[in-house]
Amino acid sequence: MSRFAPLLLSALAVTPFVNSIAVPNQLHSVSRKTLKVREPITFPTPVQVGDLVSFQNGQLLRRDNETSPFEVFALESRSDFLERDVTVKRADPVWDPPLADIDPEDYEDYAIVKCGDLGHVKVGDKIGGGGSGTIYKAIKEDNTFIAMKAVNNEKERDLEWDLMQKVGDNPNIVKLHARCKLGTNYYIAMDLVDGESLQLRINSKVYSKLEAEAPVKLVMGQIFNAIEQAHSKGVAHCDIKGDNVLMSIGEADKATVIDFGMATTETKVKDINVAGGIRAPEVENHSTEEIDPKANDVWELGTLLVSLLIGKKPWTDSNAANAKAIWSKAAPTQRKDACKKEWPEFTDDFCDILADIFAQQLSRKPLETVAARIINPNLKIFDECEKNKKTTKREAAAGEMVVTNVIEMGEELVVRAMMY
To answer: Residues annotated in the binding site, as ranges?
Structure first.
């Protein structure tokens, strides 16, 4: 385990728990899956990620924003969990006809490929993708599922494979299994993460609604664990953003870093060609031909952290006026003051850390320094005095939860919520 483990375990002591219920849905069903859920209840209106819900006196209460009152959403809901089958909506790839009945010469017609030690794999529907490739769900001969990343360039595929082999296994980095080729696509077979992107939670303001510090530290601690290991092996990720972190749908709120398609082992580069306005100012401005990719990772991690806390990207890119107001200052105390001006809800201690992240390259602190300070359970992120000044001050009600996932399962929706 990384050396962040002791601090991370301390944070786990105040970690929210994830809880789920199932509600009727009229979608067509195709298969079944056993989940730990509550008894089915009926919701009169759609539930969405970011909704606030609470079980009180045998009722499920809901509000759709921080200031609206709670409304009764369902009556006589059971508070205990049970294991039962829930119908799955998505049509998963299946061996139909069975592999033994297919002529090997016809494998390509059925999207079947021999993929290293995995044996034969049948590639199914697209489930994601971005600038560095397309992700498909696939089924192995033992009827278990994996993900297959497809690119149309063998060299790019092999470079990503080699870099991830160099990084090695980590519980917070997607695990690779094999390489293969089907048609014009070059594939990497990897674990299928049953979850949704962290970006969805940012967009829905899951963490920012209640100014929840412990859940953010838990998520970021796992991402730090992944990137710190990569850095220790000489690899910079270069594309750290919400879309490249998957949150598992399960009892544990596990984060998995994906997509090393832009990663590098170079210690100095001339450019980092990623989109989304996440790059550090020295990259955005091309102010040096000796860009440090690891230092850029630290900037991107800081941007992701603030995004979780405020529910949106802090700036369009690092050249935006509010970003430049921080990083352009030479002295750490000046950057701290600029941080407090931009985000008065943050504590002085937290802005001290952000001043070491949102700095020019030569003044930016390394990941191991800032990460340990951020996940420290004694660090207060939000300033209580500033919270008290808010006219729309929010306090978590007893048993209040924020909806983190709404999973379409065919006959039902499985709704997962996080209690703070």
So the answer is: 149
